[in-house]
Amino acid sequence: MSTLSLSAAPMHVVDTLPSSSSTSSSSFFLPFLSLTKSNTYTSTQPRTSFPPITASSSSSSSSYPKTKDVWRKTPQKTTKFYRHNKPPLYLDHSVDMDELMTSISETHDEQELFSVLSRYKDRQLSIRFMVSVLSREQDYQRSVAILDWINDEALYSPSVFAYNVVLRNVLRAKQWELAHGLFDEMRERGLAPDRYTYSTLITCFGKEGMFDSAISWLQQMEQDRVLGDLVLYSNLIELARKLSDYSKAISIFSRLKNSGIVPDLVMYNTMINVFGKAKLFREARLVVKEMTEVGVKPDTVSYSTLLNVYVGNEKFVEALSVFAEMNEANCPLDLTTCNIMIDVYGQLDMAKEADRLFWSMRKMEIEPNVVSYNTLLRVYGEAELFGEAIHLFRLMQRKEIEQNVVTYNTMMKIYGKSLEHEKATNLLQEMQNRGIEPNAITYSTIISIWGKAGKLDRAAMLFQKLRSSGVEIDQVLYLTMIVAYERVGLVAHAKRLLHELKQPDNIPRETAITIFAKAGRVEEAMWVFRQAFDAGEVKDISVFGCMIDLFSRNKRYTNAIEVFEKMRSVGYFPGSNVIALVLNAYGKLREFEKADAVFTEMQEEGCVFSDEVHFQMLSLYAARKDFNMVESLFERLDSDSNINKKELHLVVASIYERTNRLNDASRIMNRLSERATWKS
Known about the structure:
The chain has 680 residues and is mainly α. 63% of the residues lie in helices and 0% in strands. It comes from Acer negundo.
């Protein structure tokens, strides 16, 4: 009896996500099945091990075994005579599928399984029937053995459908090396992996956090000129978005468009959010323009997402402009849009407009929710309209409108601002009596109020009580207490709290790192960061960005580069703002070649940069006196419709002027003047 082994040539792994809704290019659809049990198929000879798979730190922690207990026949190099699929008299209907599957499920090794299947070896059963058998078998080891019987015993012509089903079962069992072997074996048998093959690989690797591997499979798919579909790319972008790896999401979006696929409304709306999270605000707004140009009409979600991008980054004037554009397009408002705009009006000291919009919502047949009330409550408080705020708060109670922890937190801040400290304290008791559980912000608010009122003893007692009770203490609460101590001159107490964070026992290390960074404690932040990174505890991409920003502000450029290199080592793509800080660090260290390499690499990966990054690179080229590269990048940017041309010309002219190349500076400014004249 021969053993089951897969000959697998080493290959590079790609990081992608399979789309669960993708289908194969054929009309034959193979449904996904869930695993219910596993069986051990022992072997006298270990299965060939396959090259290790490179995965990001967020990948599954399971280690890859060096040998497999699955029996696989080594593909024969000798010529085989496969049965011909002539216009058949298939006898599929004569076989009781349920009985066959029951018999298969009772086997425990390859010999038993082949024995069960042997009576069907010379019967005319179609390959479709055999693929159906595979699709109903949930155990990956049995499905691999059945595939060997189909290929090497019954001598069917190799079928991509059969391999796709087995590949699916193997990936669901998280047998990554075996999946690589199956993929290589497909090629050895002359089969071309199709869209379904790659979709399955991309999705399964991606969902297990092996995003670099998923991207590698995507690259392989593109090299094989297998066209992906919108669902596949959408799943990848959504995964990157959830991992906060926005640069990678943007890179995948570029691949999608380069492959000729037209994004749909949902994809465009997602990318507005992604560009916003990456702080590429101009690009986020240009998405709306692009939608109109390709015939995808922006909807309410498009505009509300863009509004949220601007508001989340405190760009309230820009948000007001988007709202005006939305009204000009006669796009209907919804609850989310109204809530955002109430906040925008409040931030711009336009309390009357916020009030007017809130009370007109019902006329637009939009029922305000608790978020609407909470937002208007905050607007009243910021405008010091304390009477209106208290009236609205009690109105909610009279009309039995739901109040939540945010409502009470907002009202506490209002009482604190109006110096009514006891009323704020009473609210804490009231919310608990109503069954509303205080959160970290509640406690931060009351501690801050007590600290400002000179009641530090009460604040300290509450903080210690919270720590001993096991309540989750977030960075805001910690910083609030540190500031309260420092405000009254108790610097030693503040330092003690900061020292305790170096060995946190009640908060995640990532939170401790962020607290140190925001407090400007460079050494402590670096110490905890290194400990956490070595332990594999740094999963949030924002922690890397926070540390790079901290070191850049404190002119610790070598440390900033160190964090950047760690960030790249685990497969994260830096955002545009991080790239700007890193390029600046390389420039300060006079490592221009490394800066150029990072800039080029990120561009090749499809990252989208803000204008500032491009302008910074121009300055770095000038600093190493490489004016050919300055001119080359300038010409490329000048032809890019997304670049602010006036700023570009001013930056390049300034670079030439600083380096005493006055003729070039004059040439650039004349070019700008001529363009302005031509436009006029």
